[in-house]
Amino acid sequence: MSVMKNRAVLRWLVPVTAGVAVIGGGAAVGTFAAGADPALPPRSAAQLLEDLRTSRLDGLSGTVVQRADLGLPPIAALAGQATGNDLAGLVSGTHTLRVWYGGEDRQRLALVDTLGEQDILRNGRDVWTWNSRENTATHRKLPADAPERATVPATPADAADRALEAIDPTTAVTVGRTATVAGRDAYELVLTPRDKASLVHQVRIALDAKEHVPLRLQVLADGQDEPAFQVAFTQVDFRTPEADQFRFNPPPGVKVTEATEGERPGPAGKRFDKKDAEKPDVRTVGTGWTTVVVAKIGDAATGGGAKPRADAPDAQMLGQVLGDLPKVSGDWGSGRLLSGKLFSVLLTDDGRVIAGLVTPERLYEAAKG
């Protein structure tokens, strides 16, 4: 049976695709400031890395804009509708988010669009999700002995953490131009892969000249002059937000669901059980910027994976889009190929997703293993 008929593909394509977009590179960002570059005292790459390592963030609030131009078909938005995860659409198009940070156990993120708002809040052990369109909310109590952060889309700082993990002999680190981001002066740290097989040309991180916090992160694809994926503050305030910002007060008429043990709240206020949260078998091939992720998502020959929900007609539309992807084959087998500016994804007919910031030829090599 074709991999396109395996429901697990629909559930895992977007997370895997979004994941490889930050392997060694993080998210990308465009330029949100105009005018002359600010005059700042010279800083070496080593000094900027030390500034970043020793920076301390007690509080923050602001507006973040994400922009993605990955050269892909409209799969991400469709997958979000088909799986009940509207936040999955953040890997395509332009999105505005409001963020608040009050410490390790106090965070809030709000995704605002023309049809409503979705919030994720963490206040101590309490995690809430809320969907204004459906007027639904889910509450989860975190275990006292296993503190964790709420899962939210990357801010510039989150993306920079992942990008900086790539600094090793495979990466050249230099200082770029100064910039003005969200009205603040910033230095620019530039990461350049040494391995020419990577589709990533550069990762650029703009650091606040005073607070040393990432304000903007930018990834350029090989051969491209404009960023392929963007995330940056357009407004930022480094004062600690008031405690009320992290308290969820259910609006009138809201349907509240309490997540029990083994469940987690979904971004749209929906519940997921353990089966939904199971991750496929995942391994990596290669190192550095040319790392390839291989995920086993089910037995395509037996039609593994859950069947599409009856109330999710967009799942059929998504399946059709995936089915329109080019067919490819070789001594590794057969499947479908999704290729963009920054990465390639191979969906094999034997139930694997193989992805990386590399050319399709690298994926075919990994598929032989």
Could you explain the architecture of this structure?
Residues 94-240 form the MucB/RseB N-terminal domain. The chain has helices spanning 7-20, 45-54, 75-83, 156-164, 274-277, 314-323, 360-367, and strands at 60-68, 93-101, 106-113, 116-123, 126-131, 136-141, 171-175, 179-181, 184-193, 200-208, 214-221, 229-237, 255-258, 264-265, 271-272, 281-285, 292-296, 327-330, 333-339, 344-348, 352-356. By secondary structure, the protein is an alpha+beta fold. It has 2 domains: 3-11 and 279-367, TATA-Binding Protein, CATH 3.30.310; 24-246, Lipoprotein localisation LolA/LolB/LppX (outer membrane lipoprotein receptor (LolB), chain A), CATH 2.50.20.10. The strands form 3 sheets. Strands 1, 2, 3, 4, 5, 6, 7, 8, 9, 10, 11, 12 and 13 form a 13-stranded mixed beta sheet that branches. Helix 3 packs antiparallel against helix 6. 43% of the residues are buried.
Report the major sheet: 13 strands, mixed
CATH fold name of the largest domain:
outer membrane lipoprotein receptor (LolB), chain A
Question: What is the overall silhouette?
Answer: globular
Using the coordinates above, name the CATH class of the largest domain.
Answer: Mainly Beta
Strand content: 25-35%
Region (Disordered): 243-281
Biased composition (Basic and acidic residues): 270-281
InterPro entries: LolA/LolB/LppX, MucB/RseB_N, Sporulation_related
Protein name: MucB/RseB N-terminal domain-containing protein
Characteristics of this structure?
369 residues; alpha+beta; TATA-Binding Protein; outer membrane lipoprotein receptor (LolB), chain A; 2 domains; 13-stranded mixed sheet; 6-stranded antiparallel sheet; 7 helices; 17% helix; globular; LolA/LolB/LppX; Sporulation_related; MucB/RseB_N; MucB/RseB N-terminal domain-containing protein
